[in-house]
Structures are given as structure tokens and as C-alpha cells.
Amino acid sequence: MIYPTRLSVAAAAAGAPVALLVAVSMPGQWYLGLAWPFAVILLTLADGFTGGRHGTVSLAIPRTASVGEPIAATVTARIAQGQAPSRAEVAIDAGPMIGTEDDGRLALLLDQKGVGAAHVPLQALRRGTARIGALWIRWRGPMGLTWRQQQADTPAEIAILPDIGPVREQGARLFQRHALEGLLTQARRGDGGEFETLVEFQPGMERRAIDWKGSARHGKLVAREFRTERNNQIVFAVDAGRQMAEPVAGLPRVDRAVTAMLLAAWVALKLGDRVALHAFDSRPRIASGMAGGIGAFADLQRLAARIDYGTDETNHTFALTSLASALNRRSMIVLLTEIVDTTQADFMVRAAQRLVEKHLLMVVVLRDEELESIADRAPATADDVGRAVTAAALLRERRVVIRRLGRLGVHVVEAEHDRVGERLVQAYTDLKRRNLL
């Protein structure tokens, strides 16, 4: 497709005053005033057919990427069959799952052979399979009067997976900090509930660990030494409802939750526990069985990639009741959700009340930093006062729900979006060390 540039249109428009002046001054020869526009039209046609007549563009993109992370993509353009221009412009239809700069437009410098390549700044915004719809390339003629544009359909696809960067970066560090036994050089004993052996009582040991019958047999004080229990069941229940699709610092809440879940699951698998994943919104969507061993982490990651961005309201009662019916032994349930209003939270509290009778429940929520900033900001107008009062009321309701959950015996973790994974691992290992699992 060939169409004029702004320069061509401006040059043709500049001839209008000249044509008017000729028509006024020489009415009998008014047609001479059309010489300027006709000349511009002829030059535009010549410019369009003397420049490069065929262009190709391709995009090199990786097969997978992590949500919220930049994508290393390279676009290559080639102009042939004619006088090659010095630069070209490329546009990319990246779709809603990939973010672009400047609406996906990019300028390329071409060499003497008409070939050029450049890095494309792309960012993965949402999990799923992203498809690059089409690529466009256009270039100017030698005189800069015309654009020649061509479209190249591309079947490029990229699988956007949950971000496991924190697992790689923080996993080993957190594991070394919170690991309980077996995988470090010195195994920690005395923290668990499984009997290990009898040892001579030493100053500093707890008196309740003394085995009085054993002490009578041995003629000296001996104490029971325990080891940390393994093979506990950890169930991660991820809320994928409408509220969890709202962004926090540029990334949806559900993606923050999935990243924290993967980090905690990696540590739990390394510590010998078994993990399972459940995702729900208005009803359960994903339900996996218990899996153990670090090799199960890849399967868990693939399941986490299938967690969709729901548009339905969350039904905690249905989800937690279905989850409890599928568990045949005491388990630790980690619920990653959001506290929205008192009505929805009341249903969650009632479901949690039935759940804690048999299982250990932990609720993980993100701090609402936006509401906190509105409530703490010094008001400048009457509208600011209204917003601050509303934000403070919503925060009070949130605190009331958290306190109600705490009184039921639910362990609540409220953390910043960039520390939720670390706080979750810390809470999990603390409960494991206290033998509450």
C-alpha cells in the first residue's frame, strides 16, 4: 500500500494560495495555477515507484516468559527491489497480554543492503498463551513524499508462565534460613514431634522433655529428643475471583499470590512435605492431588499457569467446603485471598470457623497500600477529606475481619506485595517448628 506523507500533503496544500493568486491575477489563464499541485502529484508518484518496492519483517521471540518480566524480542526488517531507504518503521500487534511502548511502534536504521534489526521492549502482563497478531513495516521513498506499507502475518506465540524468579533468587536463601532438618550440614533436633532418641539431660533443655521412666532405668536424668515431622500435607488455595484480578504495582493480585505460593511450595517440598494446589472463584476451578518431592514442583508450576483471571465473585463457602471434603487427614490450608467487604468476609469467616475444627488454616492477604496512602495523606480539598474518611473506614473493616479470624485460631499473614512470599515462608516454617502442622 502506498500513501502520501505529511510532507507531500503540506507541499500540495502550499500550492493552493499560488493557484488562487494566479486565478485572481490572470482569470483567462487560471489553469496555470494547477501546475503546482500536479507537479507535487507527479513527484509523489515517482517517489513511490522509485523507492524500495518490497519489505519483509520478522520477530524473534522466546517460547516462554514470566509474568511481569520484560520479554527479550528482536525484530528484523529487510527492504528489497529498489533503492533501499536508510530507516524504516515497524508496528507490532502484541495483543492484550503483552505490554508495548509507544503503541508497539519502533524505528529501525537500515544498512546499505536495506537490512536492520533492533530490540523490541515488550513486557508480559498476564499469564496464558500470548499471540502476536501481525507486524507492519513502512518506509519513505527517496524524496520523502510517500509511505510504502506492508503487513506480515506471523504465527508467533509465547507462553507466559508464573514468575519463578523469586524461587530461584530467594528460595535457597530462605530455605537455608528457615530449614528445619535433614538438608543442612547440621540437622536441627528437638523442634518437632517425632521421637528420635534418648539423650542425657543437659542444662538448657526443657524439663518437660525429661523421660522419668528412662531416667529411673539408667540411673541418671535422660530426656527425649525429637525430630521435625515430615510428610505433612500443605494445600494452597488460591482465590482467582474478580477482586484478585485488580493490579498491585502493575501486576494483578492473583499473580502476586501465585508467585508467593510457588516460593512456599518449593520450600515445603524441599522440607519433605506434600503439597497440593486448588484454585477457585465462584466455584472450584483447579484441584490437584498431593505430591511430594522436589520433582513435583514442575507439575505445580504448570498447574499454576492454568489459573485464569476470573470475572466472578469469590464464593469462599463453596470452595472451602469442597476442599475440606476432599481431605482425608489433618492438613495445613493456605488461603491466598483478598478481604473486600464485610459481607463477603462474613461468609469467609463462617467457612473458616468450620475448617479450623480439623485443619490448620492460614490466610494470606496483601496490604492495601493504596487505601493506606489515601488515609494517611494530608487532605487539601473537601474531596480529599471524603476520600480519606472512606479509606479509613474500609481499613477499619479490614482490621475487624482479621481480628475475627485470629480469634478463631486462623493464622493471618498480611504483607506488602513485594514481601508476601518471604512472609509466607516465614509463617509456614514457624508453624512447622512449633509442631502445629
UniProtKB/TrEMBL annotation:
The regions listed as transmembrane in this protein's record are: 7-24
Q: Which InterPro entries match?
A: DUF58 (IPR002881), vWFA_dom_sf (IPR036465)
Domain (DUF58): give its ranges: 200-374
Keywords annotated in UniProt = Membrane, Transmembrane, Transmembrane helix
Q: What is this protein called?
A: Uncharacterized protein (DUF58 family)
Tell me which species this is from. Sphingomonas aerophila
